[in-house]
Amino acid sequence: MNIHQWQLLLIHFGDYLDLFNDDKAYKKSDFSRGVNIGREFSEPHMAIVLSPTPLCKGDTVLVVPITNYTQNDERHWDKIVLEQNRYDFLHKKSSVHLSAIRNISKQRIIKEVRPFIPKSLQRSIRDKLCSFFKSP
Q1: Would you say residue 2 lies in a domain?
Q2: Of 44, 81, 104, 127, which is most buried, counting CB atoms within 10 Å of its CB?
Q3: In a domain, 22, yes or no
Q4: Is 31 helix (H, G, I), strand (E, B) or coil?
Q5: What's the Cα-to-Cα distance from 107 to each of 61, 71, 88, 104, 112, rounded to whole Å?
Q6: Tens of pLDDT along 41-91?
Q7: Closest by alpha carbon to 109, among 66, 45, 29, 57?
Q8: Number of domains into which the chain is organized
């Protein structure tokens, strides 16, 4: 699969640590998707590719996950709320979680959801990210 900036992917972010029993001896192969602790992202989520297209040639890619909307997400400095009726790839109100940007292995990609997100959402993400680095 060719990966490019602003592509929307479904990605498996790993399994919750609490899915595993303390009393069982596990092998590394039991954690093929990795293990996440606490509030780290786990399970499949949609994510937007942030890596510029020329940097998507390696075995990892920089992404920002899309999460379930929780009450008052619009008040958080690190979230962009997405209304379901505005984006046809959503099944419910969701949020782009900008503080959860991470570099992930391409092996975690389950499938492409859309080749590109709308330009207006691209602009919102760029503007919000740039605001993180502005002096007060």
Answers
A1: no
A2: 104
A3: yes
A4: helix
A5: 10, 33, 26, 8, 13
A6: 667 889 999 999 999 999 999 999 998 899 999 999 899 999 999 999 999
A7: 45
A8: 1
As a whole number of angstroms, the distance between CA 32 and CA 93 comes to: 31
Domain assignment present for residue 28? The answer is yes
Tokens for 66, please give them: 């899309």
73 located within any domain:
yes
Residues forming a β-bridge with 130: none
Residues 6+ apart with CB under 8 A from 99: 78
* Residue at token pair 């001896």: 25
Domain containing residue 99: 8-132
Do strands 15-16 and 35-36 pair parallel, antiparallel, or not at all (unpaired)? Answer: parallel
- Using 50, 70 and 90 to split pLDDT, how confident is the model at 133? confident
Classify residue 130 by burial, with Cβ atoms within 10 Å: 0-12, 13-18, 19+.
exposed
Closest by CA position to 125, among listed 60, 53, 66, 58: 66
